From TrEMBL:
Similarity annotation: Belongs to the annexin family.
Phylogenetic classification of the source organism: Eukaryota, Metazoa, Chordata, Craniata, Vertebrata
GO MF entry, a single one: calcium ion binding
Domain comment, as recorded: A pair of annexin repeats may form one binding site for calcium and phospholipid.
Keywords: Annexin, Calcium, Calcium/phospholipid-binding, Repeat
Database matches in Gene3D superfamilies: Annexin (1.10.220.10)
GO cellular component terms given for this protein: cytoplasm; nucleus; plasma membrane; vesicle membrane
Organism of derivation: Perca fluviatilis (European perch)
Protein name: Annexin
């Protein structure tokens, strides 16, 4: 990144996100710069501003843009840009709840379902967040998220997905839960019920104790037990859920090792203000390479500069 970019754009620190509130924020000035950049199709100016403002600040910019120009900012970006950079900047202009709803919709639209993206969101978001995302989904797409998930999944996988969407907070005894999960694996065919009930209704500390106790009792890693006893989408669901219970940052770092632009971009945007620093640290430990360096090997041009700005710095 251009060192002048950092000199001229002061940042506020203090969260686990990489995108922080821009301290000298003047939306009217940003709008004038953006208006000129859209007319000239100056992608770098758009990147410089939109990746260095928080989502809340971008919403103010979009509102101010509408008031000053009587035009929609997203429509302007669509007209001025194309390709991956256009998609990225449009995603940055969505509110966080709209964005998660959009990601879920995109995972289900068209032929086939992107089960892992559904699982990623359902496993890493809290009950309250999922309720808010469901409300945003209904407002945007005029249909119930739960109904859509039912239509896109089947069998035990449907039960797991709906239990994740409607997470409960039920107190449990660690030893009793260990015994229930252990017993579920003892028969000829594994019983899916206890896995769904327990793993979607206890807090993370409790579940980590349960999973550790199960490994001691069974003499094998939970991942091995899942591989041996379950199949298909349900197995994938439990694998993702267990990884997210043990370390959501490691799971998301693994997702970022994919070469799929869409997956990398959407995780980075989704977590840029929450915990991307933690995901970056997990990525470095997992791969031996920083995310900042990995992006430079895979992407180029203005799109690369935008992703680097969201990633923010080398580790």
């Amino acid at each position: 990144m251009d060192p002048e970019y950092f000199k001229s754009h002061e940042m506020c620190w203090g969260t686990l996100g990489t995108v922080r509130p821009f301290s000298n924020f003047h939306p009217d000035r940003d709008v004038i710069e953006i208006q000129t950049a859209l007319e000239k199709k100056d992608a770098m100016t758009l990147v410089k501003i939109l990746t260095n403002r928080t989502n809340a600040q971008r919403q103010v910019i979009a509102k101010t843009f509408q008031e000053i120009t009587q035009k929609d900012l997203s429509a302007g970006v669509k007209k001025a840009l194309a390709g991956d950079l256009e998609i990225l900047l449009l995603e940055l202009l969505m509110t966080p709840l709209e964005y998660e709803a959009y990601r879920l919709q995109q995972a289900m639209v068209g032929i086939g379902t992107d089960e892992e993206t559904l699982l990623e969101i359902l496993c890493t978001r809290s009950r309250q967040q999922l309720q808010e995302i469901s409300a945003a989904y209904k407002q945007l797409y005029k249909t119930d998220l739960e109904k859509e998930l039912k239509g896109e999944t089947s069998g035990d996988f449907t039960k797991l997905v709906l239990a994740l969407l409607n997470k409960q907070d039920v107190a449990g005894w660690v030893q009793r839960d260990i015994e229930s999960l252990s017993a579920s694996l003892s028969g000829k065919k594994a019983d899916t019920g206890p896995w769904i009930d327990i793993l979607t209704s206890r807090d993370t500390d409790h579940l980590n104790k349960v999973l550790m106790g199960l490994e001691l009792e069974k003499g094998q890693m939970v991942a091995q037990a899942l591989e041996k006893n379950f199949t298909g989408d349900f197995r994938l669901g439990l694998q993702v859920l267990v990884q997210c219970i043990q370390s959501p940052y490691v799971y998301l770092a693994k997702r970022l090792t994919t070469t799929k632009t869409q997956i990398m971009q959407r995780i980075m945007v989704s977590h840029s203000e929450e915990d991307l620093l933690c995901i970056r640290a997990a990525y470095l430990k997992l791969t031996g390479t920083s995310l900042y360096t990995a992006l430079q090997k895979q992407f180029k041009g203005d799109h690369l500069q935008a992703l680097l700005a969201i990633c923010r710095s080398e580790d």
